[in-house]
Amino acid sequence: MFELTRVLLGYPDEAFPVLWDAFWELDENDDVEYGVRKALAHLVRPLCDAAVDVFEEGDPKRTFRMLDELMLVPFHPNTSVFREKVHFLPDRMHPSLKALAESEDEVIRLRALDVCRMYSVP
User: Fold this and answer.
1) Strand, coil or helix: 79
2) DSSP state of 102
3) Terminal CA-to-CA distance of the chain, rounded, Å?
4) pTM of the entire structure?
């Protein structure tokens, strides 16, 4: 699966929807799922856009899983697969994370605060 996900990254526009669907369909402890998660971590901008959509949907289970994903498989801080410099989460995510950091759901609030600290969200 690792080799397959690396090949998919050569076609990021086509790969993202496939990897994104697989992320939600696979069990969190599945070995294949780990390869999918690692590949998604290289697709920073589309993953952030999709994460914002998840946060806006308001499903607590999916929101927590997405926040957890941002903690477990951090974006590659130096360069992406495509040698693009990646230092922080794209600004589009900041308002969503700040809103989640003020959530009434304590579990989501604490995890959002962790993500904000990890990525230095202002």
Assistant:
1) strand
2) T
3) 37
4) 0.81
**Phi, psi dihedral angles at 51 (to 5 degrees):** -65, -40
Buried b (16+ CB within 10 A) or exposed e, 62-99: ebbbbbebbeebebeeeebeeeeebeebeeebbebbee
pLDDT (tens digit, 0 to 9) for every residue of the chain, 122 residues total?
667 767 778 888 998 998 899 889 887 677 677 778 888 888 888 988 999 999 999 999 999 999 988 887 655 444 444 444 445 677 888 999 999 999 999 999 999 999 898 888 88
Phi, psi dihedral angles at 26 (to 5 degrees)? -85, 150
Query: Which residues make Cβ contacts (< 8 Å) with residue 74, sequence separation at least 6?
Result: 41, 118, 119
